[in-house]
Sequence to fold (88 residues):
Amino acid sequence: MLEYQTVSDRILAIEVNAKPRKFSIHVAPIYAPTAVSTEESLEQLYKDLDMVVKTIPKRNIKVIMRDLNAKRGNKRRTHGQRWWEKED
Fold:
């Protein structure tokens, strides 16, 4: 690992060596707000993410990972339920 930066409480930027050493891999794990969050918190997340992506050199590889926990309606999805299935 070359460097890491805590961008916000929802985004971490990590730079990792790649071989041959002509480029680096940048990983940004993201914990996105749920559907019940405010529009402002979602907008801030995308502004922060945009800032992170713009600082990565074009020759480097970008990997953006996000938390896939989701809420639909008033219930959380169960572990076995697929995203395309409707809740009862």
Q: What stands out?
A: The CA atoms of residues 28 and 45 lie 12 Å apart. The first strand starts at residue 3 and ends at 6. The two ends are 46 Å apart (CA to CA). The beta strands are 3-6, 12-17, 24-30, 61-66, 71-72, 75-76.
